Amino acid sequence: MKILTTSFLTCAVKACKSSPLSFPLHYKDAELEQSDIAYNPEFLINILPRIDWDAVKTTARELGFQVPEIKPEPTNPLTTLFAEQSQSQPASHVSEATGNDKTLRDLHTLLLETEVMEGKLVCGNCGHEYKIKEGIANFLLPSHLDSPKECSSEDA
Question: How many CB atoms lie within 10 A of CB 107?
Fold first, then answer.
Protein backbone atom coordinates (compact mmCIF):
# COMPACT_ATOMS: atom_id res chain seq x y z
CA MET A 1 0.00 0.00 0.00
CA LYS A 2 1.63 3.21 -1.12
CA ILE A 3 1.91 6.04 1.40
CA LEU A 4 0.15 8.34 -1.08
CA THR A 5 -3.00 6.26 -0.59
CA THR A 6 -3.19 7.30 3.06
CA SER A 7 -3.90 10.87 1.95
CA PHE A 8 -7.26 9.72 0.59
CA LEU A 9 -8.44 7.23 3.24
CA THR A 10 -10.66 7.76 6.25
CA CYS A 11 -12.30 5.42 8.74
CA ALA A 12 -15.19 3.41 7.26
CA VAL A 13 -17.13 3.22 10.54
CA LYS A 14 -20.30 5.30 10.09
CA ALA A 15 -19.98 6.90 13.52
CA CYS A 16 -16.59 8.32 12.48
CA LYS A 17 -17.76 10.05 9.28
CA SER A 18 -18.23 13.41 11.02
CA SER A 19 -15.19 13.21 13.29
CA PRO A 20 -11.99 15.02 12.28
CA LEU A 21 -10.04 12.40 14.27
CA SER A 22 -10.90 9.70 11.70
CA PHE A 23 -8.49 11.27 9.19
CA PRO A 24 -5.72 10.50 8.60
CA LEU A 25 -5.58 6.89 9.60
CA HIS A 26 -2.43 6.10 11.59
CA TYR A 27 0.01 3.30 10.84
CA LYS A 28 0.76 0.75 13.54
CA ASP A 29 3.45 -1.95 13.34
CA ALA A 30 4.15 -0.92 9.75
CA GLU A 31 6.67 -2.94 7.75
CA LEU A 32 7.95 -0.67 4.99
CA GLU A 33 9.39 -1.63 1.64
CA GLN A 34 11.10 0.65 -0.90
CA SER A 35 10.67 0.08 -4.62
CA ASP A 36 12.33 1.92 -7.48
CA ILE A 37 9.85 3.91 -9.52
CA ALA A 38 10.82 6.30 -12.28
CA TYR A 39 10.92 9.87 -10.99
CA ASN A 40 7.93 11.78 -12.35
CA PRO A 41 7.88 15.40 -11.15
CA GLU A 42 4.85 16.18 -13.34
CA PHE A 43 2.76 13.66 -11.43
CA LEU A 44 3.85 15.08 -8.08
CA ILE A 45 3.09 18.64 -9.16
CA ASN A 46 -0.38 17.59 -10.30
CA ILE A 47 -1.16 15.53 -7.20
CA LEU A 48 0.08 18.05 -4.59
CA PRO A 49 -3.04 20.25 -4.73
CA ARG A 50 -5.22 17.18 -4.15
CA ILE A 51 -3.58 15.89 -0.98
CA ASP A 52 -4.11 17.07 2.57
CA TRP A 53 -0.69 18.33 3.65
CA ASP A 54 -1.38 17.97 7.38
CA ALA A 55 -2.18 14.30 6.78
CA VAL A 56 1.06 13.84 4.82
CA LYS A 57 3.05 15.49 7.63
CA THR A 58 1.40 13.29 10.26
CA THR A 59 1.98 10.10 8.29
CA ALA A 60 5.57 11.02 7.44
CA ARG A 61 6.38 11.80 11.07
CA GLU A 62 4.84 8.51 12.27
CA LEU A 63 6.92 6.54 9.74
CA GLY A 64 10.18 8.40 10.44
CA PHE A 65 10.29 10.61 7.35
CA GLN A 66 10.66 14.39 7.21
CA VAL A 67 8.65 16.69 4.98
CA PRO A 68 8.53 20.50 4.88
CA GLU A 69 6.16 22.20 7.32
CA ILE A 70 4.65 24.20 4.46
CA LYS A 71 3.18 22.43 1.44
CA PRO A 72 5.35 22.93 -1.66
CA GLU A 73 3.52 24.91 -4.32
CA PRO A 74 4.40 24.84 -8.01
CA THR A 75 4.61 28.18 -9.80
CA ASN A 76 1.55 29.25 -11.77
CA PRO A 77 3.00 29.21 -15.32
CA LEU A 78 3.88 25.55 -14.94
CA THR A 79 0.44 24.40 -13.87
CA THR A 80 -1.37 26.31 -16.59
CA LEU A 81 1.02 25.54 -19.41
CA PHE A 82 2.16 22.07 -18.46
CA ALA A 83 -0.32 20.18 -20.63
CA GLU A 84 0.75 22.12 -23.71
CA GLN A 85 4.47 21.89 -22.99
CA SER A 86 4.81 18.37 -21.61
CA GLN A 87 5.98 16.99 -24.93
CA SER A 88 8.62 19.67 -25.50
CA GLN A 89 9.93 20.38 -21.98
CA PRO A 90 12.42 18.10 -20.23
CA ALA A 91 11.64 16.88 -16.71
CA SER A 92 14.41 19.09 -15.30
CA HIS A 93 12.46 22.18 -16.43
CA VAL A 94 9.45 21.01 -14.42
CA SER A 95 11.56 20.46 -11.31
CA GLU A 96 13.16 23.90 -11.58
CA ALA A 97 9.74 25.53 -11.77
CA THR A 98 8.83 24.24 -8.31
CA GLY A 99 11.92 25.84 -6.82
CA ASN A 100 13.25 22.75 -5.08
CA ASP A 101 14.02 19.51 -6.89
CA LYS A 102 15.26 17.84 -3.69
CA THR A 103 11.88 18.38 -2.02
CA LEU A 104 10.08 16.82 -4.98
CA ARG A 105 12.47 13.87 -4.99
CA ASP A 106 11.96 13.36 -1.23
CA LEU A 107 8.18 13.45 -1.74
CA HIS A 108 8.54 10.98 -4.60
CA THR A 109 10.42 8.61 -2.28
CA LEU A 110 7.87 8.94 0.51
CA LEU A 111 4.62 8.98 -1.44
CA LEU A 112 5.37 6.71 -4.39
CA GLU A 113 8.34 4.46 -3.62
CA THR A 114 7.51 3.65 0.01
CA GLU A 115 4.95 0.91 0.59
CA VAL A 116 3.50 -0.59 3.74
CA MET A 117 3.54 -4.34 3.21
CA GLU A 118 2.31 -5.47 6.64
CA GLY A 119 0.79 -3.70 9.62
CA LYS A 120 -2.38 -1.87 10.51
CA LEU A 121 -4.15 1.41 9.86
CA VAL A 122 -5.81 2.72 13.01
CA CYS A 123 -8.64 5.25 13.32
CA GLY A 124 -7.84 8.09 15.71
CA ASN A 125 -11.51 8.40 16.65
CA CYS A 126 -12.83 4.88 17.32
CA GLY A 127 -9.56 2.93 17.40
CA HIS A 128 -10.70 0.42 14.78
CA GLU A 129 -7.75 -1.33 13.15
CA TYR A 130 -7.61 -2.17 9.46
CA LYS A 131 -5.12 -4.93 8.78
CA ILE A 132 -2.60 -4.57 5.96
CA LYS A 133 -1.39 -7.84 4.50
CA GLU A 134 0.89 -8.18 1.48
CA GLY A 135 0.44 -4.47 0.80
CA ILE A 136 -3.38 -4.55 0.76
CA ALA A 137 -5.52 -2.96 3.47
CA ASN A 138 -8.74 -4.73 4.45
CA PHE A 139 -11.51 -2.15 4.87
CA LEU A 140 -14.33 -4.64 5.32
CA LEU A 141 -16.08 -3.95 8.61
CA PRO A 142 -17.69 -6.42 10.98
CA SER A 143 -21.48 -6.16 10.77
CA HIS A 144 -21.80 -4.51 14.20
CA LEU A 145 -19.69 -1.55 12.98
CA ASP A 146 -21.18 -1.29 9.50
CA SER A 147 -24.85 -0.72 10.31
CA PRO A 148 -26.20 2.38 12.06
CA LYS A 149 -27.46 1.94 15.60
CA GLU A 150 -31.18 1.25 15.56
CA CYS A 151 -33.48 3.22 17.86
CA SER A 152 -35.27 1.16 20.46
CA SER A 153 -38.75 1.98 21.71
CA GLU A 154 -37.16 3.46 24.85
CA ASP A 155 -35.29 6.04 22.74
CA ALA A 156 -38.41 7.24 20.94
Answer: 24
Cα–Cα nearest to 115, from 130, 134, 131, 139 = 134
Residue 125 makes CB contacts below 8 A (sequence gap 6+) with: 11, 13, 15, 16, 19, 21, 22
pLDDT digits 0-9 by tens, 25-73? 999 999 999 999 999 999 999 999 999 999 999 999 999 999 999 998 7
Query: Can you tell me the distance from the alpha carbon of 109 to that of 40, in angstroms, rounded to the nearest whole number?
Result: 11
Helix (H, G, I), strand (E, B) or coil at 129: strand
Instruction: Specify whether the CB–CB gap between 41 and 91 falls below 8 A.
Output: yes
pTM for the full model? 0.74
Q: What is the dihedral of CA 58, 64, 65, 71, to 10 degrees?
A: 20
The closest alpha carbon to 29, from 130, 149, 146, belongs to 130
- The one-letter amino acid code at 24 reads P
Q: What's the CA gap between 121 and 99, in Å, rounded?
A: 34
**What is the torsion angle, in degrees rounded to the nearest 10, for the CA atoms of residue 43, residue 48, residue 50 and residue 52?**
140
Distance of alpha carbon 96 from alpha carbon 93, whole angstroms: 5
Order of strands across the sheet that contains 26-34: 26-34, 114-122, 129-133, 136-137
